[in-house]
Structure prediction request, 578 residues.
Amino acid sequence: MQPKQALLSFDQSPPLSAPLRFFLTAPLFLVLAGLLVAVEGEALFASRWTPAALAATHLLTIGFMLQVMLGALIQILPVLAGANLARPALIAAIVHPGLSLGTLALAVGFLAGSTAWLYGAGLLLAISLLVFIAAAGWAIFRVPSTSPAIRGLKLSLLALAIAGGSGLFMLLALAGGWAVPLPALANLHAGWGLAGWSGILLAAVAYVVVPMFQLTPGYPARPAWWFPVAVVLALVLWSISVLLDADGLARGAQGLLALSGVAFVLQTLKLQSGRRRARADCTFRYWQGGLYASLAALLMLLLDAFLPALSTAPAWPLLFGVLILVGGFLAFIIGMLYKIIPFLLWFNLQHQAAVPGKPVPSMNKLLDDGEMQRQMRTFFAAFALLTAAVFQPDRLALPAGMIFALAGGWLGWNLLQAALRHRRHRLAGTS
Amino acid sequence: MTIRDFLMEDHRHCDDLFAAAEQSANAGDLAAAGAAFGQFRDAVFRHFAGEEQTLFPAFEARTGMSMGPTQVMRMEHGQMRELIDAAVDALQDGNSEEFFGQAETLLIMMQQHNMKEENVLYPMCDQQLADSSGLLVERLQAELKGA
Prediction:
C-alpha cells in the first residue's frame, strides 16, 4: 500500500519484537551474575582479576547493559536523531543472539579458562558489534550534529568501537598467551566502555528524557555540548599516557574524567530537584539512586587520581565496580526500562486497535507501579548487600548474590508479564 | 522567529499546564485539577488545530508530501485527543488513579510526538517554507492565542 510506505519512511518505527527481545532476555544475565556471586562468593571478591569476577562483570556489562542499550537504540535513533536505521529487524535478528550467546560463551571461557570458549565468544561478539556499529554509524554519522544528544550519540558509538576492539584484542591475547600488559589495557578497556560508551550514551539520552518525562528545566546548552567531548578527550589522554608510560598525564586524565562525570551528575540532580511531576515514580527513584551511587564512584575515581596508593587495596576497585555498575548504570537502565517497555507495548496496541471504540489499556494497566516498586526495593537491598559484601565476602556474598538474582529475576518477570498482557489485549483486539 | 522556535515554545507552555493539572490532582483537589486540565486541553487542541489547518497544509502544498510526516502527526494528534478525553472523563468521575494512568501515558505519547516534530518536522518546515515562515508564524500566533 502506497500510504503505508510513505508513513514508514518518516515514522521508521521498527517492529516491536526488534527492541523487545533485547529487553526480555537482558534480566536473565542479572540472574546469572547474582547466582555466580552467590556460588563463587569469596573467590569472586578476592580480586577484580579472578575468573569469577571477570565473568560476573561481563554478564552485567555485555549481557545486561549492552543488550538493553543496543535494543533501545534500535528503537530511539529515529526519534532522537532522525537517523533511520536500515533493516532494524534484520539487525536485531543478528545482534541479539550474537550478543546473548557471545556473553554466555565469554563467561564460560573465563570460568573454565577455556581458549575454545573464549575464541567462540570473540567471534560472536565481534560479529554482533561490527553489524551494530556499522548500521548505527551509517545512520547517525549522516545526520548533522544539531543537538548535544546527537553529538553524544556519535562519540559514544566511537567509544563502543574502541571498547569492543580493545576487549577483543585482550581476549585474543588471553587465549593466545600473548605478552601484553593486560591490567593497564583492561583499565583502558573499562574506561572506554563505561565512561566513553555507557556514560556518554547515558548523558545523550538524559539530555532528552530527563526534561521531557520529569518536566524539569532543560540542561544548560554549553556544558551539554562539552561533556561528551571532555570525556573523549580525557580517555584519549589517558590512552596516550598508557602508551608513553606517563604517570602524571594518566592522573590528570583520570581527574578530568571524574570531574566531567561529577559535573554531569550534579547538574542532573539539580534539574531533578526542580521537576514538576507530581509523583515520584519508579523511574525517578531509580535515577536518584543511580545518581548518588555514581557520584560516590566518581569521587573514588577523583580521589584515586591524587592518591593512587588507595586503589592498591583489593577492595577499592571492587567497591568502585559495585557502585558504578550496580548502583549506577544498572539503576539508570532499569528505571528507563520501566518507562520504555509499557509505552512501547501501549503504542503498539494503539496502532493495532482494529476495533474502533475498544479502549486500549493505559500504560499502568500493562505494568503496575506497585509491582515495579517492590522489585525496586529488592534491587536496592541487593545493591546495599553487594556493597557490604566487598568488605565481608565470607558472610555476605551468598545472601547478596541471591537477593541480586531475585531482583534480576523479578525485573524479568515484571517485563514478561507486561508483554503477556500486551499479547492478550492484542489477540482480544483483533479477534 | 522560526516556526520551530515558536511551536516549541507552545509545547513548553502546554507542558506547564499539564504539570499544574497533575499537581492539583496529586494534592487531592480534583476540582482545581479539572480546571487546570481543561486549560491544558484547550491549549493543546488549539495547537493541533493550528498545525492541522495552517502549518501542515502549507508544508504539504510546498513539498507534495501529503501522506508523509504530516499524516503521522495527524494520526498521533488523534491518539492524544482520545487520551485527553479519557483523562477528562476520569477526573469527572473522581477516579484519580485512572487519571494518573491516562496522564502518564499521555505525557510520554506527547513528548515523543513533540520530539519528532521539534527534531524532524519543524526543521523541515523552516527549510521548505523559508520564504513564507514569517507570515506563517504570525498566523499561527493569532490562532494559538485562542478566544
About this structure: Chain B touches chain A through 35 residues (CB under 8 Å).
